[in-house]
Write a structure and sequence with these properties.
With 294 residues, the protein is α/β, with parallel strands linked by helices. It has a single domain, classed as Rossmann fold (3-Layer(aba) Sandwich). The protein has eight helices and eleven strands. Strands 1-2-3-5-4-6-7-8-9-11-10 form an eleven-stranded mixed sheet, sandwiched between helices. Helix 5 links the parallel strand 7 and strand 8. The longest helix has 19 residues.
Length: 294
Amino acid sequence: MTPCLTRRGLIGSGLALGTIARVPALARASGPEVIDVALPSARVCRTWRYDPAGQRRGTIVFGHGAASAPWKYEALFARWTQAGYRVLAPLHVDSTDHPDRASFAGLAGWAARIEDMRGLTATIENAQYVAAGHSYGALGALALGGAEPLLPEGVTGPLRDPRAVLTLAFSPPGAVAPLIDAKGYSALAVPVLIQTGTADIPPGADGWTSHLLAFESAPARGDRFGLVLDGVDHYFGGAICRPELPGPRQLAQLDRAAVLSLLMLQGWAQGDAAARADMLAAVGTRPGETLMQR
C-alpha cells in the first residue's frame, strides 16, 4: 500500500432502510461484533461494531481512510468505548481488505461510501449520533455534518443527515478537484473538531495546512475547533490507518487528540457545560499543540 494510494489516489482518480445480519467476526477483529447491512444496490456493507462495557452514552459512525480498514483504528476506538460510546465502522469498498475493491474505481468508490453511510446510519435507533472519520473518511463525516462535496453520477443529495449533531474529522482532505473545495466545506452545519499535524503533508504538497481548509471555510460560530499537533504525521506513526509503518507510533499525541474529542463529545453532543469550559480553556498554543477556535 503506497502513501499516495492511501491518502489521495482513490479520492482524486477519475473523479431503503438496511437490514442487519450477524456474521462471525474475522480473526483480526477479536473484540467487536461484525454485522452486515443490506443496501438498496444489493451490496452488503460489512460493519465492525465496538460496544462499550457499560451504559451506552451515544453512537459514533466512523469512516476509515482510503485503502484502510476499521480494525486499524482500534487504538482510537478504545478511548471512545471506554467513555461509553458505541462505534460503528464500515469496511468501505476502497479498502485493500475488501473483496470487491477492483470493481469500484474512482468516483464509483465515493458513491459506494455514500451508500454505505446512508444504509448504516438508517439502522441507528438513536435520535442523534456523531459522525467521525480519518482522511477520506473524514470527508464523509463532514458531509454528514453538512459539507457539500461532489455528488457522483446517480447519487442524489443532500448528504447532510440532521441526526448527525457533531463531526470529528481527523486529517480531512483540503481542496481536491472535483470532489471538494472551500465552498463545499463552508456549508458545514454542526460543531466540529478538525485535527492535523505539522508532519501531515500530502504527497506532492509543500506543507500540511491544507488539512485545515474545512476549519477555515466553515462560518465562525464558536463551536469549530482546529487541532494541530507538533510533529504528527497522517498516520500517527502507524498508530492508525497503516499499522505496517515502522513507527515510532505517536501514541501520546493520539491520546491527546482522543481526549479533546471526548470533550467535544461530552460538551457538544451531550450538552455538558463543564466539558465545554474545559475545551475552551484548552484553546491556545502550548508545548506540542495548537488548538484554535472559530
